[in-house]
Amino acid sequence: xxxxxxxxxxxxxxxxxxxxxxxxxxxxxxxxxxxxxxxxxxxxxxxxxxxxxxxxxxxxxxxxxxxxxxxxxxxxxxxxxxxxxxxxxxxxxxxxxxxxxxxxxxxxxxxxxxxxxxxxxxxxxxxxxxxxxxxxxxxxxxxxxxxxxxxxxxxxx
Length: 157
Hints:
- The protein has helices at residues 8-24, 54-60, 64-72, 87-93, 97-106, 134-142, and strands at residues 111-114, 124-127.
- The chain is mainly alpha-helical.
- The protein is 38% helix and 5% strand.
- The chain has one domain: Serine Threonine Protein Phosphatase 5, Tetratricopeptide repeat (Alpha Horseshoe).
């Protein structure tokens, strides 16, 4: 039997399947009126011996769809590995611009707007903030990333 590398779509399908399994195994909330937001499944932020999480690896490798799925499931974008690097730093360091843009959007630094600056209908173009490009914005937010959690209100489209 010949082995092959999974396609990007297959990888996303596997991650989404596992995330669905984790979500369905989460303990039921006893008081639905409680103001405490639901906590992500503990395995979502499980780190290896270098403290890299699934989000670190997806960001480092530029897998935007997987990064998006992990963040929307509650992955902590502010967790740092042994080298002191979070997922945003790994994406920027490895020139994964789409992932950097998404993570900046999640924390409210970079924005995506449809139809502006010459984009075709249905396409998005990133809006650079005044005062610098991606590298400057990454440096600006790195220190403030620890503990950032995504809520329903803060999810990027």
